[in-house]
Amino acid sequence: MSVFKRSSRDAMAGGPAVVLDANEPEIKVEHVSVRFDGKKGAAPVVALQDVSLDIRQGEFISLVGPSGCGKTTLLRTIADLQQPSSGRITVRGQTPREIRLQKKYGIVFQNPVLYDWRTVRRNVCMPMELKGVPKKTRTATVTEMLELVGLYHFGKKYPHELSGGMQQRVGIARALAIKPEILLMDEPFSALDEFTKEKLNEDLLKIWNKTNKTILFVTHNISEAVFLSDRVVVLSPHPGRVSAIVDITLPRPRGLAIKNTPEFGALVAKVRNSFEGV
Amino acid sequence: MNLRSSMNPPEEISVRIAATQQDVSNPEAPAADRRRFDAENLTTLLYPIVFGVLILILWQTQVLHRILGADTFTLPLPGRILTIIADNAPEILMNARATAIVALTGLLFGSMLGYLLGVIAAVFPKWGIGGLTVVSAFNAIPIIAVAPILNNLTKDFSRDADTRSMLAKILVVTLMTMVVMSINAYRGLTELKPYSEDLMKSYAARRTDVFFKLRVPNSVPFLFTALRVSVPGSVICALVSEYFAEYIVGVGRQIRENIVLAQYATAWAYILTACLMGILLYAILLAAEGSLLKGRR
Amino acid sequence: MEPNRKQDSNRLATFVWVLALILIWELGATLVAQTKRTPENVLPHLYQIVESVFSTKLVNGSQTAFQIVLANAGITLARAGIGFMLGAAIGFLLALLMNLMKTVEKIAFPYLMIIQMIPILGMAPIVLAVTKDIDKSRVIIAAILTFYPVATNTLAGFKAVPGEKLELMHVIAASKFEIYRKLLIPSCIPYFFTGLKVSAPMAITASILVDTLQGGGGLGTMLSQSLKHAMTIYVFWQIVFLSAIVGILSYHLMSVIEKLAAPHRWARKVKLDEPAQLDEPA
Questions:
Q1: Distances, alpha carbon B104 to alpha carbons B111, B142, B177, B224, C44, in Å
Q2: Domain A2-104+180-273 falls in which CATH fold?
Q3: Chain B within 8 Å of C99 (Cβ-Cβ)?
Q4: Residues B150, B156, B162, CA angle at the centre, nearest 5°?
Q5: Which of C235, C201, C94 is nearest to B233 (CA)?
Q6: Is C195 on the interface with B (CB under 8 A)?
Q7: pTM
Q8: Which of C274, C278, C279 to mutate to test the interface with A (most CBs of A within 10 A)?
Q9: Do B240 and C121 touch (CB under 8 A)?
Q10: Is A201 touching B (CB cutoff 8 A)?
């Protein structure tokens, strides 16, 4: 731990933060394992075992797998919400912790986690308040973000007055409000119905197109992963490990119609077939 | 002792019941059903009123006395009680004021102290939870045991019997309301929505920010939960501690004194006053809650 | 952290706090002992109270202080218990009736709300005046204080049964009696006990309070007499601690009965994807 800290501090001291080589991956996951201590006497649960993964800047990458495969754990480890038991993660040449403290992460959970005592606008505002963004900029950014997710007219509403899909949009607007470099999404649409989910999938691609963020997207829905991603990382459980990485070669921009093409069907089948023993 | 189970009681219930009440007047009901719902609303209002009036009639016509085996001396007619209130208005108001001062001052200090305790417990959970377990045990101690102790402890506070009695009574209320508030405040400050702390962490928020922007707002509904218990509780504590107080003043004490003097009608007038005080304070609380929690789920 | 270790550390913290309270009490008692002529009236040392429990000195000619307290506790607690059980039964039945009949619910509901707001304990003297009997008054007040928390909580328990479960019962054409017996009553048990836990200490408080209103017998009477120095002040201190202990115990007693009545709520959750750990006899 201390080794990482020192090296990155040196990097920061050495002038403008790390300039990324075009070929250098933005997120480097190297031989990461995560173990949770079991109950008294029981063996520790291995959530991730020797996972390595490179994510390029601006890439849309999905982690898919059945429950217990460690996909959420991997996202949480990159987000510095969970510490790896061994191995290391480098984000833009720094540790996840440093990236988090520089507020370069945006995160969206399955549950929208809105503050129910704040209106939609003030919810989107929250991370900027914490970052100390001046009020004028905040107001402008909130408007911009709500327009981006198509909720401009709902700014004065309270979260409970919105549908599940709208709440999740607010969550995305909030995550984007601090202009993060990397957007981490942990099963953001899994609680929504199929129609809402497809609509939000399409919108998410538009937003990604406009903002050009790196997106790490966790889901258990194969079709959703194929539709959205540049690459789909397939994880297998017990212990969680990468069992395949499937390149999604479908053309962009993608519309929902692409789901009817044989190429799409073939890629879904390819992802499905790469699960081991499930 | 399990902290959570020790303090859940009536609050979650009243919330649930409020929810069932709303079902009756569902605003999203289709227009065709409107009339039926109007009839529902009417009976919801009408039935209890008819029931209440019926009891009053039975009381006034002394049928109630025959059922209970009471006489009009100990159970005076409603008309007589109202006359007494009208005749003794200044005195009743004076005693009501004394009781209200005790209840509200105790409620204010007790709730503030309780919230502070809750904050301390939330900031230092390792020792705080154990402390709250001990505090919640205070909940089960009868007021009757506490009131005389505080009476004795405050003997030296002032030469004036009224002042030192007042202090003793206020302390009883403070103690009781503090216990209720501390446990609810702790729950409000710590029972956060899943992931909300993770989210704060991903913003690299400072501890003070997490506290003031997440924990404190989260605790507001719990604050009202506590008040729903402690507002009626503060009136009860005030009345009972008056029984034991040195200085004879207050609605509770007047109920007792008048019964000792066999002035039952006057005692009933004070009972009615006590009930009205309780209802008034609770109504104020509900109004405050309604306007402050507007927009929340 | 492991749940067991966490529980242990909580228990330790609780223990330390109890010690701290004792320390504060003793500091106060020491202070009082130096400044007062009769410190035992204000704040005696705890050991003095414990000593008085075991003292063999006869206080009223035939009984020691502790014997007096115990004898009177019997009277008070028995009445509190009767009132409590009566109130619990009435409360449960009222909730059942309210759930069965909409009209009853509409009539009773506002009064259940209002009764929460009014100080019933303050009405104790008048109940005594109307009934003219101290025993009846104890029972009645304890019953009133028990009945409404039980009624409101049990009703909430009936209302909290998920619609799907009720619909399932309808689909399999269960009779109303079966629905209550197999679904509604079992599901409202935890709520019923929440009501009992609130009201058990209140019933005891009520019974003691009613005692103080008349010179018959009971803890309350002894408490007032002791305060008026008609007998040793330690009777008062013993009653203070006894009522506190009984109040706390009454709450725990309800928890214990609840565990016996609804064991499924306390069983540990078994996770499917974890290897099963059977409790095999060693």
A1: 10, 20, 10, 15, 31
A2: Rossmann fold (3.40.50)
A3: no
A4: 75
A5: C201
A6: yes
A7: 0.81
A8: C274
A9: yes
A10: no
Q: Is the CB of residue C279 less than 8 Å away from at least one CB of chain A?
A: no
Of C4, C273, C275, which is closest to A40 when you measure between CB atoms?
A: C4
Residue A1: the pLDDT is: 35
Could you tell me if B229 and B11 are in contact, meaning their C-beta atoms sit under 8 angstroms apart? yes
SS3 C204: helix
Looking at 1.10.3720.10, 1.25.40.20, 3.90.1150.10, 1.10.150.530, the CATH number of the domain B82-292 comes to 1.10.3720.10
Contacts of B127 (CB under 8 A, 6+ apart): B121, C13, C16, C17
Work out how many domains chain C is built from and give that number.
1
Q: Which two tokens stand for residue B252?
A: 């509770």
Cα B20 from Cα A209, distance rounded (Å): 47
**Structural domain containing residue C127:** 61-263
A-chain residues within 8 Å CB-CB of C275? 42
Of B22-31, B58-67, C7-16, C144-153, which one has max mean pLDDT?
Answer: C144-153
Residue C189 distance to chain B (closest CA, Å): 14
* Cα–Cα distances in angstroms (integers) from residue B52 to residues A158, B79, C87, C102, in the given order: 40, 15, 22, 17
Binary contact (A116, B297; C-beta < 8 A): yes
What residues does each domain of chain B span? Answer: 22-69, 82-292
Nearest CA in chain A to C275: A42
ipTM value, please give it.
0.80
Residue C67 lies in a domain: yes
Give me the pLDDT at residue B85, please.
92
Residues B202, A105: C-beta atoms closer than 8 Å: yes
Band of pLDDT at residue A7, cut at 50, 70 and 90: very low
With a CB-CB cutoff of 8 Å, which residues 259-278 of chain B face chain C? 259, 264, 267-268, 271, 274-275, 278
What is the length of chain B?
297
- How far is residue B274's CA from residue B286's CA, in Å, rounded to a whole number? 18
Give B11's contacts (C-beta < 8 A, 6+ positions apart): B184, B225, B226, B228, B229
Taking each helix axis from N to C end, the angle separating B216-244 and B89-123, rounded to the nearest 10 degrees, works out to 140
Give the whole-angstrom CA distance, residue B135 versus residue A165: 44
Please tell me which residue, B248 or C59, carries the higher pLDDT value.
B248
